[in-house]
Write a structure and sequence with these properties.
Beta Polymerase, domain 2; five-stranded mixed sheet; 6 helices; binds ligand 0O2
């Protein structure tokens, strides 16, 4: 069983490498065509076994290769950080129109923020993993958000780590209010960018 899980994790690593190549090509082409790069930076990670076990536990499943494949969508995670909300949707559409990737699920937490205030756009995609004599498929989660949303999520992540069982009300309330501030700031920055674009020669 342990070697099955190791084998599966190796495949996810190859899958991430392939996904990175595909996304790089997609973004480079967009940047050349539009003379504009909508992306600030990209982060990638493979979920740790401990986090996978936690997620399976929460969903009521035991650790098996099949349960990982079926129920953990974000073993492979890519986070794309953009400056402006308009860039986030531009990237979402770019990925959705890319024939090589199949979208399994999408979650617009920008239009519909989570209860905590979390905002981001999530695409769950199917990724091909080309092995010696066959192709297998895995899943990856692509999170697309602005720098401001990422700032909020990164602090929220630290808060969740510090208070794994019960986040104090005052911290929860502050984070909820700051999520609203972030939304307002993102819209102001977008408007300012539109004004700046008027001055482009
Ligand atoms: P980590 O440590 O980032 O890997 P699903 O994946 O759909 O089966 P879930 O958890 O309901 O199950 O999906 P959801 O809510 O779309 O969340 C997936 C990921 O989004 C999370 O992965 C986080 O990365 C991020 N996320 C969702 N809600 C929040 C939030 O309130 N705050 C922060 N900071 N991030 C959030 P993991 O595995 O929970 O965490």
């Amino acid at each position: 069983m342990e070697s099955d899980i190791k084998g599966l994790m190796n495949k996810y690593e190859y899958g991430l490498e392939m996904l990175q190549v595909q996304l790089n090509v997609l973004i480079k082409e967009y940047t050349k065509t539009h003379n504009y790069n909508p992306i600030e930076h990209v982060k990638t990670r493979i979920k740790s076994i401990d986090s996978i076990i936690n997620k399976l536990n929460k969903k009521g499943y035991e650790l098996t290769p099949n349960n990982i494949y079926e129920y953990v969508y974000d073993v492979v995670g890519v986070r794309i950080i953009c400056s402006f909300i308009s860039d986030v949707y531009e990237i979402v559409n770019l990925i959705k129109n890319f024939k090589q990737l199949t979208i399994i699920k999408e979650k617009d937490y920008i239009e519909n923020p989570k209860e905590s205030g979390y905002t981001s756009y999530h695409l769950i995609v199917s990724i091909p993993v080309y092995l010696n004599n066959r192709t297998e498929f895995g899943k990856a989660e692509i999170q697309i958000r602005t720098i401001a949303m990422d700032f909020w999520a990164s602090l929220d992540h630290k808060i969740q780590y510090k208070f794994p069982n019960d986040i104090p009300e005052e911290v929860k309330n502050a984070m909820y209010n700051y999520a609203i501030d972030i939304k307002n700031l993102d819209h102001k920055m977008l408007e300012l960018n539109k004004i700046m674009n008027k001055y482009k020669s």
